[in-house]
Write a structure and sequence with these properties.
Layout lengths: L1 E7 L5 H14 L12 E6 L15 H13 L3 E4 L9 H10 L2 H8 L2 E2 L5 E5 L8 E5 H5 L2 E11 L3 E3 L1 H4 L8 H8 L3 H15 L3 E11 L7 E11 L2 H11 L8 H8 L8 E5 L7
Parallel strand pairs: 1-11, 2-3, 2-7, 3-4, 7-9
Antiparallel strand pairs: 1-10, 5-6, 7-8, 9-10
Amino acid sequence: MSKVYINTSENYRFDRVENCIQKIFNDMGGLDSIVKPGMRVAIKPNLLMSKNPDDAATTHPSVIKAIITFVQKAGGIATIVESPGGPYNTSMLKMVYANTGMEEVANETGSELNYDLRVEKVLNLDAKIAKSVKILKPLKDADLIINVAKLKTHGMMVYTGAVKNMFGSIAGLEKADFHLRFNEYDQFAESLIDIYLATKPMINIIDGIIAMEGDGPGSGIPKYLGAIIASKDAFACDYAAVNIIGVDYNDVPVLRKAEERGLLNKDEIEFCGVDIEEIR
């Protein structure tokens, strides 16, 4: 049985976001039951591009700041790790971190911004088509990954959330190679599942306070939902998210393929916290 935890926040005011996420972590049994003192915790936001957080293309810095605060209270050492689209180099990372609010979060919390550009090949025995993937070394070396996605529509994959967010563990322009190699929708969905299985984040959190609809993942319209969704199971997390926004999960290639592979069982999901009907 997979558990999905849902809570709400009216806006991105830090105290409200912090209370929302604290309730979720408490319902999970407390973050200190997962994060132990000295653990290297990689915080993996969606920083698709160098955009202002108000554009809803990236994970909001208030959500990242709240998560880092709780990681640090548990004794963890937090580092923000992401590979945006385009060249994966120091100047690109600096620009993206600054414009998405991550630089400010790091300054306020004393957490680290990753500038380690190394990648490491990971063999994935559970993969269907991407049997080995080169992922960011800081993600490979982390003791624990917290995957913090943004709820958005997606022109190719219909919806992007927890599972697809781990596509950002592939360095920069290598992502283009995946699009070329797996250019059919179902193929690409299978590769996204394989990448997620190779990275294995411990906690998945979706920022759906302000989501994106329309021409996602980068040029859509901000849409208020007021929700934060979390689970140790990214497939269950995404299933909850598409239910909230009224999308049939069978229309989402990643979720349809996950169900075929036995990675999603919608009848074995327990929803905790705020009822989905209160958010729709």
